[in-house]
Amino acid sequence: MPLNYSFNQKHNWRLRFHLQTQTGDITDPNGLCQLNGTYHFFHQHRRLWPDAAHGWGHWESEDLVSWRWCGSPIMPSCTMDKNGSYSGSATIHDGQMWCYYTGNQLLPGKHDYDYSGRLANEILVVSDGEHYGEKRLVLGNESYPSYCSCHVRDPKVWEQDGRWHMLLGARAKGDRGAVLLYGGEDGLSWKLEGSATNTGEGTFGYMWECPNRICLDRREFLLVCPQGVSKQDFAFQNVHDSGYFPLEGTVVDALGADPALMDADGPYPCIDASTFVAWDYGFDFYAPQSFEDEKGRTLLVGWVGLPDIETQYDNPTREWTHTLTVPRVLSLNEAGLVCQWPVPEIDVLRDEPVELVGEGLHGTTGTVGSAKNDEYDLTGAIGAGFAGGACDLEVTDIQGDGRILLNGDLELMVSDGLLELAFLSPAGAYRTVRRLRVSDLSAGRVTDLRVLVDTSVVEIYVNGGEKTLTTRWYPERIDLLHVASTLPATHRAWTMRAATFEGTGE
Is the pLDDT of residue 489 over 50? Predict the structure, then answer.
């Protein structure tokens, strides 16, 4: 039966087509895969009621718009994961899902749990999608190089050229971010076969979380979430960021060139940090995970949220928090950059087209934006209202500067060589502004935009998804969304119907 949301939507900002639990939270996507036509999306989940255990929540879907909540099948249940069943991945083998994750085990005594007192147990559970086998330890602290701290986690496992491979994120001593590469013949026994960190002076973050590997048009990319990189005006604008490194060869070859392995004093410096490409430029995007579906598409899903944001801004929902992005198809454009685009299955949620017109918008002016005395003029603007607080807006053939305003709360501005996402009201819950240089786009200008709005989530795709900006927002009204645009371009828009969610969500 459909989820029964009995809460006051005005203060809970429930979603229409993004995943959400009845209570508790959704964080890192885990174990994304497709088995016999069914998509399986797992994610980090704390139920909060009746307990605060940290494990995997599970959703199923045949079409990526109709979802069944399957509960939390991987939760702390033994000594190996008694302090949390954390992030990992799944690979399809012999008609089953082989789910790998990090089980946290904190030892008693006086420890800092960074460099002592924490066991990072890499655990395997095999499932047919309904039943889950026994938990099996496949790697533990004794299998990690001596230069590692206690933070080794987030196994990404795949088969390639007849061999199994596993990436692990690591925090090396000296607060150096790194990834470890393990290999094996059967997915059960593993041996260190390589590592990677940044070349040159200094470190590129103290921890490289959520490592992943994708292959597009026979080119491979190493994905990481570097924690602790210093903030810049147009890069690393969030407390933690995520992105990818383009590689000349394969991930296995690059990391496998490590000459010392377990005997090394530190991880192998083989990655040029200057080649890092950010996945997203918005306020809320982290820990993306990718997988290849049975159609041969590489899909990516991110957490619409961030860790460690308490000192920056807020997520004021009560009984539930956070969600995942819509699934995004990955492709390479002519510039060799990875582009993200909503899966076409999402388009079935489009309702009747809504025409953007100028009535009621002419002559409106005000002072908004991130710069003092930044004035805007909506003379000649077009706009529309969208019932249910959800819309899909496509803006193509953009010929110059202009703005898109959502409810007068959130401004997307293209002006003076910048693309800026700025909050104009408390709807940002202390979020302020994020900026992207237009010159960083391969076209040198903004040519097209797609904006998905779902009550309290906004996903913006720039130039075919070459850049994206993802954010939460909390407008005063969620029953009706107002959109205004001054962009000289072609506009098309649709109100979005709700996806189907079945199960209790508890």
Answer: yes
